[in-house]
Amino acid sequence: MSYFETGVKQLEGEYRGGFKQGLWTLYYEEGQKNREELHTSGSSEVKWTAWRSDGQVWAEGVLVGQRAQGPYSEWHPNGVLAAQGLYEEGKQTGPWSYWNTQGQPSGDPQGDFAKE
User: Fold this and answer.
1) How far apart are CA 44 and CA 67, in angstroms?
2) Torsion of CA 64, 110, 98, 50, to 10 degrees
3) Half-sphere exposure of 72 (CA within 13 A, CB side)
4) In the beta sheet, which residues pair with residue 114?
5) Strand pairing partners for 99?
6) Quick one: what percent of the chain has pLDDT higher than 90?
7) Residue 29: left (phi > 0), alpha (psi -120 to 50), or beta?
8) CA–CA separation, 59 vs 95, rounded Å?
9) Sequence-distant (≥ 6) Cβ neighbours of residue 4 within 8 angstroms
10) Which residues contact 17 (CB under 8 A, 6 or more apart)?
11) What is the 3 state secondary structure string of the chain?
12) What's the rounded Cα separation, in Å, for the pair 98 and 106?
């Protein structure tokens, strides 16, 4: 376990054989859950879910060796799905779907992709 200078928990998880193992939870400095990561022994794959500081889910996906790989989903701050698609070796691949804040399909990138 690790703590911010204020005494609030920063992260918790377990190491085995010098590697992260099982569920790791990271927190915002205010104490809310920021991110969960699931580390599997003997694998470089990490499944993760991230939350906004208000507790709303922000995104989830998979990393392999620090690169995005496989399914990815992202939500607008109001909880409506914003983007969904696949990554291959850190790059978007195949068809991606986007929805506006009302949940209607959008041809324009939404969520963090709208900022690029």
Assistant:
1) 10
2) 40
3) 27
4) none
5) 105
6) 82
7) alpha
8) 18
9) 10, 29
10) none
11) CEECCCCCEEEEEEEECCEEEEEEEEECCCCCEEEEEEECCCCCEEEEEEECCCCCEEEEEEEECCEECEEEEEECCCCCEEEEEEEECCEEEEEEEEECCCCCEECCCCHHHHHC
12) 5
Q: Is 39 exposed, middle or buried (0-12, 13-18, 19+ CB in 10 A)?
A: buried
Can you read off the two tokens belonging to residue 18? 């010098």
Q: What is the pTM of this model?
A: 0.88
How long, in residues, is the chain?
Answer: 116
Angle at 47 between CA 44 and CA 51, to 5 degrees: 140
Q: Give residue-wise pLDDT tens across range 37-77.
A: 999 888 899 999 999 999 999 999 999 988 999 999 999 99
